[in-house]
Amino acid sequence: MTRLLGQLEEERRKLNELGKKSLDQGIPLFENEAVQAQSRKVDEWIVQWLQRKSGREHQLR
Questions:
Q1: What is the model's pLDDT at position 59?
Q2: Residue 6: inside a domain, yes or no?
Q3: Is residue 10 part of a domain?
Q4: What domain range is 45 assigned to?
Q5: How far apart are CA 1 and CA 57, in angstroms?
Q6: Taking the CB of the first residue and of the last residue of the chain, which one, N or C, has fewer CB atoms within 10 A?
Q7: What is the pLDDT of residues 15-56, one digit of tens each?
C-alpha cells in the first residue's frame, strides 16, 4: 500500500508541475491536453488506492 501511495504522490507532483507551467504560459488548464491526461492518470491511481483501502477494511472486519 505504501508503494501505491508513493506512486500516487509522484503522479500528483507531476500534475502540479504541468499545471504550474501551463498557467505560467497563460494556457488554461482545461485547454492543456498534457494536464488533462495527467489528471486522468492521477484519478486512476486514486481509484486504485481507494479500492485497495476498501478491500483491506473489509478484511479487518
A1: 60
A2: no
A3: no
A4: 32-60
A5: 13
A6: C
A7: 999 999 999 999 999 999 999 999 999 999 999 999 998 887
Task: Quote the CA–CA distance of 49 and 59 in Å, as a whole number.
Answer: 15
* 21's grid cell: 507551467
Residue 4: inside a domain? no
- Our count of domains for the chain comes to 1
Does residue 52 sit within a domain?
Answer: yes
b/e for 38-49, b at 16 or more Cβ within 10 A? bbeebeebeeee
pLDDT confidence of residue 2: 85
Contacts of 48 (CB under 8 A, 6+ apart): 4
Please tell me the number of Cα atoms within 13 Å of 35 on its side-chain side. 15
